[in-house]
Amino acid sequence: MGLLGGFIVHPRTVTTREEHGEFVLVLNDWQHFYTSEQHQVLMASGQFYPNSMESLTQPSNIDYFEAVDGSRAAEALVTSILINGRGQYFDPRAANNSSSTTPFEYLNIISAPNNATYRLRLINGGSVLSLKFSIDVHPLTVIASDGIPFAQPLIVDQLIIGLGERYDVLIKAATDKTRNYWMRVDTMDKNNNPRWHARAILQYMSNTTIPTTQPRNCTATQPCLILNCPFAQYGPKLNDNAMSLICLTPQNITTHEDYLDRGLLNETVVPNVRKTLQMTMVEGTDERAAFESFNYIGMQYPSMDIPILYDARHAREQFACFNRSLDTNTGDKCYHTVMARYNDVVEFLLVNHDDDQHPLHLHGSYFHIVEQGLAVLNSTTGEFLANNPNVDCNEHAECKCIETTEGCKKNNMRLVKDTIQLSKGGYMRIRFRATNPGIWLFHCHTEPHLSRGMVIALHIAEDRLFQSIASHSTNIADHCISIVLAFAFCFIYLATD
Ligand SMILES: [Cu+2]
């Protein structure tokens, strides 16, 4: 099956830490087959719902994910959620004895001193679903994301972690150390599907007693805080029109001063490269399946006969997109690229007018999120009502910022990350400096979306690439097994220069 685990890169110098220990928690959703298998069936059958691949043969039996705001994730059949590879599988529709369980993951903090602090490194390594993390009776002090510290810690009850995102969280030992506590990983599923919950145990007792703890009761008078909501309101209001859950969005987070590039935050700066990427779905026909794309262009990777870093231009020309308008008739894909020269300021306006949430991830650089615009929700039900009115897109994925609003002009954020969740109906404006030469992917982290084409390749400082590669005598092609791996491997290769 392969290997799955956290890979933590520490800074060269580590300041003295007060934590008594740390735990790496890899969280992920689980399917009973590979995305690639699903993809093949989809492409062959020309439809999105590969019912025959699941033991559940009736389409009405498939668990479709719908988030509390009404957005979707992907047409994939997630059967379990795992914490460090451990989880439970059960089929709520099957007869008895159909469930399987693996032993719970225990985080051992037996004999934790009073007020001891522990660091959790949370990673959503899944392929389809954003995950919601909490520990009973333990508030979460969230201090960093994607390896970059926040200006101020945020103390919350729950934390939403999008696909590919990483969060550093501190927890304090509980006052009552005579019991064990549940650690919970849920989704944003509106229908609370029983399959999509995982549990681990924060262990204070020397025995492995199963906890009996409960999550905090979120009420109108004592609402719970959820950090990193991709929308402004989590679920319906209570009967008295109050909220029991308060959403903190990325706009509530600011990156630590030391990690901010003031030049990028400046509203008057004119980026050298500007690109709108709209998350779009190319419609399927009888002959072919639909696919997720940026600007209705699906990614076709160039052949690896000549390693892409040896001849980036050749790669670009092989399946060039020629700035063509959409070709929804053929659904043909091409090598979708953005070029930048060394030290260019690159700005992307990312617009999601699709039905799905899309977690977006950049390789090779961090970006500054300078503006966020969220969808308009029904203020009673919390469900999607309309796209954010600041941006308008036509059927050719040409988006423009509405003149009468401040959207796309006025920065309202200062957050540095390499992965963000873009919710249905929302947009974000991100900027980064092209100082890391290479061929880097920017893609949706939802695996079926990535696999079907929602990805773009950034060619940064092509003129510096060959120089850099030529100074190595090893045949780089030996290292570059697949295109995605190539980008990861070759990054390390270049970084040693
Ligand atoms: Cu996506």
TrEMBL record:
Organism domain of life: Eukaryota
Entries under InterPro entries matching the protein: Cu-oxidase_2nd, Cu-oxidase_C, Cu-oxidase_fam, Cu_oxidase_CS, Cu_oxidase_Cu_BS, Cupredoxin
Record has Oxidoreductase as a keyword: yes
Gene3D superfamilies, A to Z: Cupredoxins - blue copper proteins
Keywords: Copper, Metal-binding, Oxidoreductase
GO molecular function: copper ion binding; oxidoreductase activity
Similarity section: Belongs to the multicopper oxidase family.
Protein name: Uncharacterized protein
